[in-house]
Amino acid sequence: MNQLKHRFALAIAAALLGLAGCATSGGNTFFDDAATTMRVKKAIYNDASLKVMDISVTTEAGVVDLTGTVKSKAERSRATAVATKVEGVKRVKNDLKVE
Known about the structure:
Blueprint (H helix, E strand, L loop, with lengths): L1 H22 L5 H18 L7 E7 L2 E8 L2 H12 L6 E8 L1
Parallel strand pairs: 2-3
Antiparallel strand pairs: 1-2
């Protein structure tokens, strides 16, 4: 009887976990944001005018935050343009400082 209760409790727990997984909308935001961050970093690195700049990238809910320093307003604008074109980016918050 005790074993039957244990199995029943396990089955209920598995069912609840399964239903909870079905209730989520979309993918896992943490991993989506991490992938977006990596794509933006790669795009910035691959841009010849930004490759050596001190630019940090973070992403939260598809909003990319650029921080660090660049040498001109043109480079600041270029960083925003490059990041905006990356898949998964909803908006770019540019906090880059011009030296």
